[in-house]
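Sat 14:20. Reprocessing the chain from the morning session after the first attempt stalled halfway. Input below, unchanged.
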Amino acid sequence: MIEAFVVSASVFVVVYLFLMQPHQVKGSSMFPTFETGEYLLTDKVTLKRREPLRGDVIVFKSPLDENFDFIKRVIGIPGDTVMVKGGYVYVDGELLDESYLPSDYRTSAGQFLQEGVGYVVQESSVMAFGDNRNHSSDSREWGPVPYENIVGRAFFRYWPSDSVGVVTNPNVN
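Finished this time. Tokens:
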């Protein structure tokens, strides 16, 4: 019995440290995609093998307090010019397709990403916004997220049971 426990604990530790990690959604910054109290598994491997893609939902260390993790959607990747103008998000001068959001959602500028001013995303960083733009502290306020702060990519919602499923990127078929 002790051997089974040690093997099980070892497998758990390896999976937790290197492959995936559970996270609980706290707050409304990703509503309607995620609601507070939902549980997700974060894939810690994929973003070590490839760069984040626009539309990925990522978990990263808060730029305000690294003891906390944030969950946001990647809006801009290296080389993109991101701009908020008139309540909409533009990437490289094109209106960003955000069909995953309700049509009445609007995006306001912030302290870092000001109205009508484009920002070119630098290498090894992304711009990440919450889906619930009016209730999200995100890259509009504090700037880009460096790759080294990214914990992983949200890939599976496992609670509540009526919402179980894979977290998809709307830009990838």
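The two ends are 46 Å apart (CA to CA).
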